[in-house]
Write a structure and sequence with these properties.
With 265 residues, the chain is of the alpha/beta class. It has a single domain, classed as Rossmann fold (3-Layer(aba) Sandwich), CATH 3.40.50. The protein contains 8 helices and 10 strands. The chain starts with a strand and ends with a helix. The mean pLDDT is 92.
Length: 265
């Protein structure tokens, strides 16, 4: 059963409300995507093909021009509450401590917002437990500028998960990091997903990252984007960096690269 279902979606970004569609951007054309509950999906494709736009559709931040976007069998008509998001830049608020940055969704999203005063200590404990799970125990009182880029991304993952979202949407969250830190965070994210089994959609340009983390990798074509190929990842979990050097893994990455080349043509 599909938990997230995108069917025959077209999306036009218009420059101005009253301008003709042709004056804007035709981002998606007849896009289809199906993701099961608790599945880890990755989306790859050439730059500008609409990968990030798919995430916005699922989160309810934009509406399709045509077609259907459903989560849990219900049409998405407004921003969803039980969604966590993380981006290439950590976007931590510089005037808040790491703990207070992690706690931010609990101050905004119901029912946590209404419980904020009554359950403040429980919320702080929730944040500290998450920080500990990603190797940031004791860093709650620090400020963002005191942490490295990789540590800030760990904190961003905690912020995205603190309100127990049903869906985690990741838009190139490790793209700005060095290779060593990026691979270290693959293991962190994999461990969090194995423990919690939330539904994940990861947008990435790093094909090894997609194959390492995902249950299924979806390939998009050049704009106007649509999913042109989907590939199940057969490797058992937990996966390690050694997995990425196995001949079958290298062959899968090569096949994904070939599919993107065809989609970009």
């Amino acid at each position: 059963m599909s938990y997230i279902q995108i069917e025959a979606v077209d999306l036009h970004y218009r420059r101005h409300r009253h301008e003709h569609v042709a004056a804007g951007v035709f981002a998606l054309s007849q896009a289809n995507l199906s993701v099961g509950q608790g599945e880890f999906a990755a989306i790859v494709g050439p730059s500008g093909c609409g990968k990030s736009t798919l995430l916005k559709l699922i989160a309810g931040l934009v509406r399709p021009t045509h077609g259907s976007v459903k989560v849990g069998g219900k049409e998405v008509t407004q921003p969803l509450k039980r969604v966590g998001m993380a981006f290439q830049n950590a976007t931590l608020l510089p005037w808040r401590s790491i703990r207070d940055n992690v706690l931010l969704p609990l101050e905004i999203v119901e029912p946590f917002r209404s419980q904020q005063r009554r359950e403040r200590s429980e919320h702080r404990e929730r944040a500290e437990m998450l920080l500990k799970s990603v190797g940031l125990a004791g860093f709650g009182p620090r400020m963002p500028w005191e942490l490295s880029g990789g540590m800030q991304q760990r904190a961003q993952l905690c912020r995205a998960l603190v309100h127990d979202p049903a869906i985690l949407l990741l838009d190139e969250p490790f793209g700005a990091l060095d290779a060593f830190t990026r691979e270290e965070l693959w293991a962190v994210l994999q461990a969090l997903w194995i423990e919690r089994r939330f539904t994940v959609i990861l947008v990435t340009h790093e094909l090894r990252e997609a194959a390492y983390l995902a249950d299924k990798v979806h390939v998009m074509c050049a704009r106007p984007g649509s999913v042109t190929a989907s590939c199940a990842v057969p490797f058992s979990r937990p996966r390690s960096l050694e997995t990425t050097f196995a001949p079958d893994f290298v062959a899968l990455v090569h096949d994904l690269r070939s599919s993107i080349g065809e989609a970009a043509a």
